[in-house]
Structures are given as C-alpha cells and as structure tokens.
Design a protein that fits this description.
Elements lengths: L2 H7 L5 H20 L3 H22 L6 H19 L4 H9 L2 H7 L9
Helix pairs in contact: 2-3, 3-4
Length: 115
C-alpha cells in the first residue's frame, strides 16, 4: 500500500469531503484486511486518528467560524465511530444523517463529492 497516496486521501474541509475520505480509507482498510496486511490496517486507523485530532483541534479554535467548528466536531464524531466500529459505520452514518439533530444542525443529509 502506497503510504504517500494515503496521506493525500485525508481531506475533511466539508462533510461530503469527510465522507469521501472515510469511503476511500474504508475501502483500503477492507483491502488490507482481505490480504492480511496488518501494516495497511494500522496505517488506515492512524490516518483516521490523525483526521480526528485535526478536526477536534479546529473545532476548539475560537478564531474559526462557529458553524465550521460545529462541522469539524461532527466530523471528529464520524472518525470516532469509524474507529470504534468500522463494520457498522455506514449504517450508523446513514442513520446519523437522517436524524433530526443532524438535519437541524447541517440542513439534511449530505452527499459525497464525486471523485
């Protein structure tokens, strides 16, 4: 697995970009799991942890617009749930995006950007 190309995947400037990032990393995670590649699995998890740390850092930065901080807090939650249960993440995300809380905060389900 090309480590440099994985670093380029980590983008979360918006909810759709974060979803795309998670889809790409999840795909690589499944590929690593199917080929019994523990280094690849660990690298995928490390990227998600890195994204979570960055998103949390931005969510706590008072110089950042309040709505953008809320979005980063949401993205950090997505990364947390993926780390806890990657097998159930996509079902959880669908439920999350259709929840009244998400809709009131972010205006409804977002669609990932086309790659």
């Amino acid at each position: 697995m090309a480590m440099k190309s994985l670093e380029d995947i980590l983008k979360f400037d918006s909810l759709p970009a974060a979803e795309n990032t998670l889809r790409e990393i999840h795909s690589l995670f499944l590929q690593s799991r199917s080929t019994d590649d523990p280094e690849g699995l660990n690298h995928c998890r490390d990227l998600i942890r890195k994204g979570k740390r960055r998103a949390l850092m931005i969510s706590r930065n008072k110089r950042v617009n309040a709505s953008k901080r809320e979005e980063k807090k949401e993205i950090a939650q997505w990364f947390t749930v993926w780390l806890q249960t990657p097998e159930l993440f996509w079902e959880w995300l669908d439920l999350r995006k259709s929840s009244p809380d998400f809709i009131s905060r972010f205006g409804g389900a977002t669609s990932p950007q086309s790659s």
